[in-house]
């Protein structure tokens, strides 16, 4: 058997070395390997291979140097060598290979069959080599290696240059990317700042509606953190009653890839309800597809509240129009029934069985009149006749009939202050307030209990008030009405002042009681607050502006009917039955009566009448000619004739606001007593005083000054008129005056200054002084009283109010000497 040829493989690359070893062994050769020239020489000293396969470029010793070593050693000089390399090209290696006796070189990488063929050919070549010039080989080797190194350096330089260019491009790319990242972070920061300070909610959602982002507004309002809002967590902030609808509409809008818009309620961190409008639009990517939604939430709670107030206002306006439409005719009918019933009772014996029936008719008429009055009160159509009254005696008197309203199982407890609690309010309105409140308290205590009526004086200049309850700072008379009844929950309490809202059974309440109370209190310049809890009772607190003037004396309810003194009354009323009733009442009470069906007829009668007409008693709304033209005609042509209007409803603002020129008014339906008393008051006020008094007037407004002068002179007073404070003092000190009326804003010397100077003069130190003012502040009243004023009147005031105040101050005052 032939011994296999021995081959030494020298290769620094492990993969190439193992490949060659495996290939040659597989071909039947005996193979040894070395990874560099030095290791190869050690192996060659120990054994003599038949063939050496070597790489050219290796660390330490390259292939040519190895061949040089072999050729210089006699024992190894004839060993054939086959170069297997990718470093040297054939042209570069030819010279050296020829000098070293090398016939061929394999180019890496080579196919296995090419390698085996080259090995086979190398083994067949003769092994003897000619003389070897080591010095020439070294020079050529050095030259080839140098050139190769120069090529490598050039290639390396080129590679480094490309690497540097790539590095520069990479740095530019990194710089650009870093700049873009900074711009992105800055943009995100600006966006966060914008969304955080926006007064609206801003959110981002996925294409299916899950929350991805909410701004600080939403977080602060709802109290939910961003993490809690993600996904469908935001739904927790939606009002439970709205959640299902909101989620359904959101999913539907997202599924249809459309715009979402909805209005719903959310719950705040304090569990308060807020109304919001949500509007979301789709975000589209570069491919046109929807990548999500961005939306906004707008708080519309205040708008909702304004809408509710508008609806409430429209409701009240509608009821007011309804009341206006029926009140006049209905009150005429009630006046006829009431007048004839009273006349019948006067002529009926007390033991007559019909008397009780007539009293029932009168009672039912009174109730019907109160119902109409309530309608007019809360719709602000009823005439207001305010007077200065002390709450304490008024409540004491009213408590007598109030006890008859509530039954035996309920007690009324009065806790009235010792201080005067004088307010300006219509006495009838005050009674209405008390009655409505007591009836409500009674109905809240079906099993009995206690109603407490308490008065006090409250200074609200510095007091901390409840949220939503904001009366103007100042001094108030406080009327508190408490019960020990069932109380109310918050939902009921929020509706109690709405007209027609009631918690009572059908047929047991009109829903106008507390609406009427609120209307009366606000008309008097006051405020009302309610405090209540379920099963803890209810307290209503009514704050009415405190008046510094003394209360006006009350008329005795049981006094004799005011009789006429043969005065002539021109009665004008288009309702024939009512006109007949009033005429009969007046004639039986000592008046002469001229009657007319409308204004045209009344003017004709007045012009034809030869004697004096003391009083014009006229309805306000009549055919052909109403009261306005009639009153103007009579007042101009017959100035001595007093005027009294009858009405069941009026839109005459001058009358309703109590302007000074406005005639007196009596509200239908009226009783016989109230009509006769009112007529007597009007006629008596026109009588000249028994003593001639002189009044000093200081008023800078010429029209208003002329108006007051005419009023005072027609009432029998002498008037010293001034348009400034200095002029008033010039009139006041030389003359004997009985009373001074000073406007707050007179020029050159204010009323406060005039007051102090009059008080400092012994002749006028005790002079009654009335200060009048059209200002709306509370300080003017306080300053006037501190300066020495006896009484303060706020404009506009009625003729009755002015004359009553003057007569009150002139009691026991002697007349001025001529």
Notable characteristics:
single chain; 818 residues; alpha/beta; 19% strand
Written account of the structure:
With 818 residues, the protein is of the alpha/beta class. The chain is 45% helix and 19% strand. The longest helix is centred in the N-terminal third of the chain and has 64 residues, at 134-197. It is rod-shaped, with a radius of gyration of 57 Å. Mean pLDDT is 78; it is low at 462-467, 555-559, 650-662 and 814-818.
In a nutshell, what does this entry contain?
By secondary structure, this protein is of the alpha/beta class.
Structural class: alpha/beta
User: Beta-sheet strand percentage?
Assistant: 15-25%
Global morphology: rod-shaped
Distance between the termini: 177 Å
> Which spans have pLDDT < 50 for at least 5 consecutive residues?
462-467, 555-559, 650-662, 814-818
What would you report as the Rg, rounded to the nearest angstrom? 57 Å
Mean residue pLDDT: 78
How many strand segments?
Answer: 27
Percent of residues in helices comes to 40-55%
Please give the count of helices. 25
Main beta sheet: strand number and arrangement? 5 strands, parallel
Strand ordering within the main sheet: 2-1-3-4-5
């Amino acid at each position: 058997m032939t011994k296999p040829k021995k081959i030494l493989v020298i290769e620094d690359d492990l993969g190439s070395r193992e490949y060659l070893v495996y290939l040659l062994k597989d071909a039947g050769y005996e193979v040894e390997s070395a990874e560099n020239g030095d290791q190869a020489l050690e192996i060659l000293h120990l054994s003599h291979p038949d063939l050496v396969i070597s790489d050219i470029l290796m660390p330490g010793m390259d292939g040519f140097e190895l061949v040089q070593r072999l050729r210089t050693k006699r024992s190894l000089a004839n060993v054939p060598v086959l170069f297997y390399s990718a470093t040297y090209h054939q042209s570069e290696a030819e010279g050296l290979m020829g000098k070293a006796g090398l016939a061929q070189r394999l180019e890496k990488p080579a196919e296995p069959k090419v390698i085996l063929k080259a090995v086979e050919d190398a083994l067949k070549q003769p092994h003897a080599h000619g003389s070897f010039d080591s010095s020439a080989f070294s020079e050529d080797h050095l030259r080839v290696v140098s050139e190769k190194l120069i090529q490598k350096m050039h290639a390396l330089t080129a590679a480094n240059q490309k690497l540097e260019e790539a590095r520069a491009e990479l740095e530019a790319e990194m710089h650009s990317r870093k700049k873009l990242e900074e711009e992105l972070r800055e943009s995100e920061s600006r966006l966060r700042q914008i969304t955080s300070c926006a007064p609206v909610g801003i959110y981002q959602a996925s294409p299916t509606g899950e929350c991805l982002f909410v701004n600080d507004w939403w977080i602060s309002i709802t109290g939910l953190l961003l993490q809690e809002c993600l996904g469908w967590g935001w739904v927790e902030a939606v009002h439970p009653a709205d959640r299902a609808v909101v989620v359904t509409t959101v999913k539907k809008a997202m599924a249809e890839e459309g715009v979402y818009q909805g209005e719903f309620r959310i719950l705040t961190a304090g569990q308060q309800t807020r109304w919001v409008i949500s509007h979301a639009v789709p975000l589209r990517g570069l491919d046109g597809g929807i990548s999500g939604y961005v939306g906004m939430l707008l708080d519309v709670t205040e708008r909702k509240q304004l809408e509710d107030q508008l609806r409430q206002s429209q409701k009240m306006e509608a009821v007011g129009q309804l009341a206006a439409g029926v009140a006049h005719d209905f009150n005429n009918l009630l006046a006829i029934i009431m007048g004839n019933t009273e006349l019948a009772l006067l002529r009926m014996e007390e033991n007559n069985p019909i008397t009780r029936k007539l009293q029932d008719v009168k009672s039912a008429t009174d109730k019907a009149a109160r119902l109409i009055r309530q309608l007019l009160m809360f719709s602000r159509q009823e005439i207001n006749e305010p007077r200065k009254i002390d709450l304490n005696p008024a409540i004491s008197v009213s408590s007598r009939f109030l006890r008859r309203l509530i039954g035996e199982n309920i007690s009324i407890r009065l806790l009235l202050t010792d201080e005067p609690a004088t307010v300006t309010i219509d006495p009838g309105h005050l009674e209405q307030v008390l009655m409505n409140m007591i009836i409500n308290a009674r109905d809240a205590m079906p099993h009995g209990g206690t109603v407490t009526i308490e008065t006090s004086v409250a200074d609200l200049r510095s007091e901390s008030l409840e949220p939503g309850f904001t009366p103007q700072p100042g001094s108030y008379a406080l009327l508190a009405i408490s019960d020990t009844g069932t109380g109310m929950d918050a939902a009921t309490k929020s509706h109690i002042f709405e007209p027609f809202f009631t918690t009572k059974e059908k047929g047991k309440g009109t829903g106008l009681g507390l609406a009427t109370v609120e209307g009366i209190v606000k008309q008097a310049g006051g405020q009302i607050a309610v405090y209540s809890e379920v099963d803890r009772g209810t307290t209503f607190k009514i704050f009415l502006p405190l008046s510094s003037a003394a209360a006006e004396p009350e008329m005795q309810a049981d006094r004799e009917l005011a009789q006429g003194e043969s005065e002539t009354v021109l009665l004008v009323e288009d309702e024939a039955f009512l006109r007949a009733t009033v005429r009969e009442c007046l004639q039986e009470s000592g008046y002469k009566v001229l009657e007319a069906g409308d204004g045209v007829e009344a003017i004709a009668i007045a012009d034809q009448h030869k004697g004096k007409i003391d009083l014009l008693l006229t309805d306000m709304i009549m055919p052909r000619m109403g009261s306005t033209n009639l009153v103007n005609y009579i007042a101009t042509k017959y100035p001595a004739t007093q005027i009294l209007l009858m009405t069941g409803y009026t839109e005459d603002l001058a009358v309703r606001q109590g302007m000074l020129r406005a005639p007196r008014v009596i509200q239908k339906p009226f009783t016989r007593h109230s009509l006769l008393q009112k007529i007597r008051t009007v006629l008596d006020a026109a009588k000249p005083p028994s003593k001639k008094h002189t009044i000093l007037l200081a008023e800078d407004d010429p029209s208003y000054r002329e108006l007051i002068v005419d009023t005072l002179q027609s009432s029998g007073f002498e008037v010293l008129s001034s348009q400034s404070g200095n002029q008033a003092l010039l009139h006041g000190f030389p003359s004997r005056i009985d009373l001074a009326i000073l406007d707050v804003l007179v020029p050159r010397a204010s009323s406060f200054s005039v007051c102090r100077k009059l008080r400092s003069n012994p002749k006028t130190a005790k002079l009654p002084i009335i200060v009048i003012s059209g200002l709306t502040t509370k300080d003017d009243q306080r300053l006037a009283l501190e300066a020495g004023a006896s009484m303060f009147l706020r404009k506009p005031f009625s003729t009755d109010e002015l004359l009553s105040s003057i007569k009150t101050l002139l009691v026991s005052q002697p007349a001025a000497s001529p």
